[in-house]
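This protein record is not my work; I was only asked to verify it. Take the sequence as given and treat only the tokens as open to question. I have pasted the whole thing underneath without changing anything:
***
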Amino acid sequence: METKMETRRRFARGSKRKALLGLSPLLACAAVVLALLWPSAASTSPDPVGMECTAGNTVNLETATGHVYTPDGNSVFMWGYKLAGGSFQMPGPTICVTEGDMVTVTLTNPAVGGVPEPVSLIFPGQTGVADDDATPGLFAGEADPGGATVTYTFEAGEPGTYLYESGSDPGKQTQMGLYGALIVRPTMGANFAYNDASTRFDPNREYLIVLNEIDPALHRAVELNQPYDFSTFNDDYWQVNGRSFPDTISENYAPWLPSQPYGALVQVQPYNAASNPYPALIRYANAGAVNHPFHPHGNHLRVVARDGRLLQGSGGQDTSFEDFTRTIGSGQTYDLLFKWTTVDSWIDPGGDAVPVTIPGLQNLVFKDATTFYSGDPELGEQGALPQGTTSYNECGEFYYPWHSHALQEFTNFDEGFGGLATLLRVDPAGGCP
């Protein structure tokens, strides 16, 4: 019998969690990874899932070098931005400000542990960005290696989802990990995506999906200070928020991912006009050089903005639209509103759910001390299982995969499933105890 450590390695460093019954057919083949799913007692995050903000109008960043971990047991050398005095992380801290704020971001390139070439910051979508008397660069003032510092100031412009990234040799440095997300909230309030009543969302359901790709050969060449031919670029890893699936579904600040703090699990409850009237807000951003067709299963998402601009006609007409697969171009961002509507009323005791016979233990499938549901189209009920048995259902929740529709990106170095993917978790009304 394998040890818990061996199980953790086999399941890509996940934390054990009761997870799932009643899977969709596509997810059934990946069901076992859902044992990875929920927070351990060691988690340091106040929110196990959802977007994590670095709040405040003044942010002090440093460059850093380190490694990220992939579910196939590999590690990849990276560059990154981190909070001054903090630890290396990938991607950089998510900066959250409010429209009209005067924002100051100071970047230091330390002599020890920093990036060994000039670096900078650019803020696509922001206007009037100024920097102090730093070394002039192609797009922005640069911080030379050895401890140089440059300060950038700007007034936060229109609300929306933006990227920040290096403006120094961006083809190399952004690929190496020098990027992060900038969120500008509207003056209308933090529970609105934009200054429009139609963009109100549940502030407890705000999720950031930042995509990128990695060519480990480039990263190895940089680590060894060797030349690299960019015409041979070949991405073998794909990430969401700096992680590859199934690590993407682990909680924020998972202790076994010390340099990859942000999870990407999306967790919602069914729409209810009285008790759960507002949608979740999903923020897409592509920090990579490759376009990614991102495909969420389940209900459609309503695209309300692109590149920090609300989708409205010249007369204020609503030009938002429902979408099921969105190709996110290199450098693009999208804001989407998402409601889960329970078509079959599976969680509504007063609804017209299909009547079923709940299977007994003799009708369940057991394999390697793991229980799988019998295949009935409706979910079952909670109950006692034999001691030592692992159950993949906690309280009637179920999951859908959200993943790249370029299926080679749904892998970890050609092994599926992995890569650019996460899950949508749908809880019963009221959530799980």
